[in-house]
Amino acid sequence: MSKHDEARRAFLKGAAAGAGVLAGTGLAPQALAKEQEPKPHVRHKTAAADAAEAPAHVHTSGEGHGAFFNDEDAATVAAFTERLMPGAPGLPGARDADVLNYIDLALAGAYADQQDFYRRGLAQLEAFCQQAHRASFTRLDAARQDAVIAALEEGKAAGFTWPTAQAFFNTLRTHTMEGMFADPVYGGNKDFAGWRLVGFPGAQPLFTTADMQSKEAFTRAPMIGLQAQAKAQAQSKKI
Question: Distance (Å, rounded) from C-alpha 52 to C-alpha 33?
Answer without folding.
Answer: 9
